[in-house]
Specification:
The chain has 420 residues and is mainly alpha-helical. Among the domains are: 62 residues, no CATH class; 59 residues, Muramoyl-pentapeptide Carboxypeptidase, domain 1 (Orthogonal Bundle), CATH 1.10.101. The strands form two sheets. A four-stranded antiparallel beta sheet has the order 4-3-6-5. The protein has a two-stranded antiparallel ribbon with strand order 1-2. The protein is globular. The two termini are 43 Å apart. The structure holds calcium ion. Calcium ion binds next to loops.
Length: 420
Amino acid sequence: MIVFFSPRLAKSLALIACLISAPILQAQAEATLAEDSRSFQSWLADFKLRALSEGISAATLEKALHNLVPSEQILQSDRKQPEFTRTFFQYLEAAVSPLRVENGKIQYQNQRALLEEVEQKYGVPGAYLVAFWGMETNYGRFTGNLPIIQSLATLAYDPRRSAFFSQELLAALRILDRGDVPLEQMQGSWAGAMGQVQFMPSNYLKYAIDGDGDGKVNLWSSVPDALHSAGYFLQQLGWQPNQDWGLEVQLPSDFDFALADGKTPRPLQDWQAMGVRDAQGKTLDANYAQNPRLVLPSDYRGPAFLVFDNFRVIRRWNNSSHYAIAVGYLADQLRNKAALSKSRPTDDQGLSLIEIKELQTQLSQRGYAVGEVDGIIGGQTRAAIRAFQQQYGLPADGYPSIKLLNQLRTTPSKSSLEPS
Ligand SMILES: [Ca+2]
């Protein structure tokens, strides 16, 4: 059973109780609210003991946890499931907007000396550092304004992922204890990501660097600290110097789109033999990384990318292939590389949660294994879509679309094909 902290429910119960003048109900509602806060306070008391035993000073705990109450806003953010999925093009247009490219070019120029210093040290080219910085906080313009200690304490108290967030809360307290940043400045995202490159507290402890040499690691106010930290973090995640993230390629019209699974590395000459060319239609450069994977983030009409090891490094920072393409593409734009060769199709539209569930149900009813009908497009759902497309002679891009859903709706299901 999930114990759900819900002051709003308690408040509405109290309101209903007042309206119908039922003193008993009201007393019960107030009791629930009091119980919620008592159980948070008793959880917090235990947590303080643990933090003390792990070496965090009493003074820091006293200051940081004083008068702390859980935040309902944080719990709601944690439980929110998006109603609509964004397509690759919708995502990319927001993530790599002309304004973000323009501001990125200014930073790429302004921070040149610092970026060269960081590249020398950690092997990560400046354009990528600026791209991460832009993706995470719009070059430090928006680092999040929620108090980190309250967010993490709420999520650590909530049973859902308590162990993970308790560790992050301990790490955040350790950062305060070290004196890197004052409590008032320690603000960030609802999930606890902090500063100009949005590090979680445990990564802050492990990877954040004092880039400006003032003796403190402050990822909010120091750009040198933020960019040195991003460089060191990427190096530790396995960044390959002298290698790009990937590149846009052209596929022949009879290409087997099922090969674009984003997972299977193949020798460069194999892709070449299958007719894969660079976006300008030229032979693949033999200097590219040797065993790239093929990614098709939109449908078969959209752009295709051969991606290298650094693509996987970017996904270790944030495990999303849309994010990884956006970082790589933004870095390319900062270096004045070519824009994408494909533009957004007019019928490009993300599916709603309900439509994805229907898609999964329709596939499942036709004998294609989708796993759980959960409204999430994962590997199994994509494989089921490909199998359906292959059976009906459609390009097997594994891409969930309204068109595909309509095709499924008009395809007889297995049960209706069987003789009654
Ligand atoms: Ca510093």
